[in-house]
Amino acid sequence: MQKPIYVFLLISTISMLFPACENELDVTADWKEIAIVYALINPTDEVNYVRIQRAYLDEKTAALEFSDITDSLYFDTLDVKITVSENGVEKNTYTLKKVNAADVGLQKEEGVFNTPEHYLYQLNAPLTASTFADDQSFKLTIFNPKNGQVIFGESIILGRAYMRAPVSDNTLKFFVPADSNYRIYVIYTEGKHAKSYDLQFDFFVEEISLADTNDRDTVNIKWELFEGKETQSLNGFMDASYNIRGQNFFNLFASNLDSNLNVKRRMLNFDVSLIGISEDVYTYINVNEPSIGIVQKKPEFTNLTNAYGIVGCRHYTRIEDKAFDPRTIAALATSPWTSNLNFVTY
Fold first, then answer.
1. Quick one: 48 and 185 in the same domain?
2. Do 179 and 336 contact (CB within 8 A), yes or no?
3. What number of other Cβ atoms are within 10 A of residue 131's Cβ?
4. 3-state secondary structure of 28
């Protein structure tokens, strides 16, 4: 009779990843340690983090017995480096520092796999985005001195994208009228090497108590206009477009704010984030989407050697602290979709 295998996976976003070339699993095999690595580097961030943890395959011990043991989640000693290259020529090598995520302001969500310590590897060095003339890339190398194993993976670094409409670096005001036939047109220039983009608006609304005008709260309402929109080419520098009904802007506030006669609301400002991802990250996300059909088994994907997970790049184009056109503020106060939300016109 075969004994049950208990699989412990540190990363909750994926199920167990086994090499595609292995068709059979030896259920009588000894305990096995597997490294899981997530390295999504963003050249627009001053500090980047790499996540490295253990996964286990053990026929004798249940997965939950490992879940709250820090020594079981993390490797004792690792030498983690990132080497940056320009046009294939190595330029700099950086050693990453092991840090407790809580100490740098990054909190881990509570759950089954919850421990007081949550360790990451910190890259505190500037990275350069690819440009029309130069390709930037990086290679992650992880050396485990206890067993001599070397893990590595590499990725291109994306170039910058540019927002053109409905807002840009030079746009002064954001205009949407209370017209059900009006459409918002999004135009942006794709960054070099990007495979897809997400676009998100963050609107900030101030709620002021009518009983005490010093009692104020700021509400952040997120608007995801699109997600996973593929680029036309990995070469970049091509204009892409998207459009959506302007009424959806008003519906967003109607669905996220309650009618409340005890407060008045004032539009403050908003931020825009255009987020590009590299091709390997795009593939990894799509391969690991939940299955909804009859066939549940999916192919595994990793671009790491001697580990599972993903090494890739994200690029954030951020436009921050933008203002609303006074006509948009007036429309929020009077439109049939939001007139009950007590927006003021100043």
1. no
2. no
3. 14
4. coil
